[in-house]
Amino acid sequence: MAWNKNALLRYRTIDICLQNQSRKWTLEDLIKACSEALYEFEGKEMNVGKRTIQLDIQFMRSDKLGYNAPIIVQEKKYYTYSDPDFSITNIPLTKLDMDVLTESMEMLKQFKKFSLFDELNGVIQKLEDKIYNESANRKPIIHIDKNESLKGLQHIDFLYQAILKKIVLKITYQSFSAKSPNTFNFNGYILKEFNNRWFLVGRGEGLTKIRTLALDRILNIDVDLTADYQIDDFDPDTYYKNTYGITVMNDEQLINIILKVDKYNAPYVLTKPFHNSQSLIEQYEDGSIKINLHVHHNFEIERVLIGFADSIEVIKPTSLRTRLKEKFERAYKIHKNENYLQ
Fold this sequence. Notes:
Layout: H1 2-19, H2 27-42, H3 50-61, E1 71-74, E2 78-81, H4 95-108, H5 120-134, H6 156-164, E3 169-173, E4 182-194, E5 197-204, E6 210-214, E7 218-223, H7 236-239, E8 254-261, H8 266-271, E9 279-283, E10 289-296, H9 299-306, E11 312-316, H10 318-336
Helix pairs in contact: 1-2, 1-3, 4-5
């Protein structure tokens, strides 16, 4: 990385020199200018060799970085641009460059709530200006689903910084089922997003069990600088290995789910598996399939299966099949009345 930065600094320095056509530039002049620029950048003496600058000039003349700089030698000694208005900073962006910049800019803007991206704000603004000036200001092709009206999003950056700096949090929290809020110390390990909702995952003070807190249920956040952060080797990939969603259960709730998917939804389920444990058991002649999942029996897996109510049949386990059947029966009772209020 350092070599790349130094090379780019040399290209920029040579470019500045050659733009100044009020004087003549020998190879030794360019070497001196680059050495001084690197000294200012690195804060130490940097010996730039003659061969290095010669290679830099060849590189700038080429199209490897899209420069195609019109560098010529006059009187077999002096370097200059044949086009006095040329600069490597004025090279127009290609359509591909514009497309990549547009999508990159839009994706970077999704992280604007994180302070670690604060320094990107100026860069993003420059990108927007450049794209606006050099294109028809087209709309982005990539669209990321987001809901900025969700409660709790204002906590994201504070929590991120606390996790990064290993600071114990003092959280006032009230779950949907709790009658009153509760305040406790908490060691945050990760921030997790699922289904467009954010969660803080970690351990309560003195507890060994991992706990998941919904950010939209956090009423207040402070820090406890007198408490020792509980260091942990928490691995989110291992922790969520057998879980669909956010609710991790114990091994007693780990089940094998066998599903039969109709022919219309089989392609969807095959190309977008419910879980990484999904495996194909059988594919029938009519296009339907039978698959297996090895996951915790939690609320989230039930909800996704309910979403496929008329296209997926739960074969096993019986407990899950019965539970979904009861939910479908209650749903039928709710919707069977045709005399509903307008």
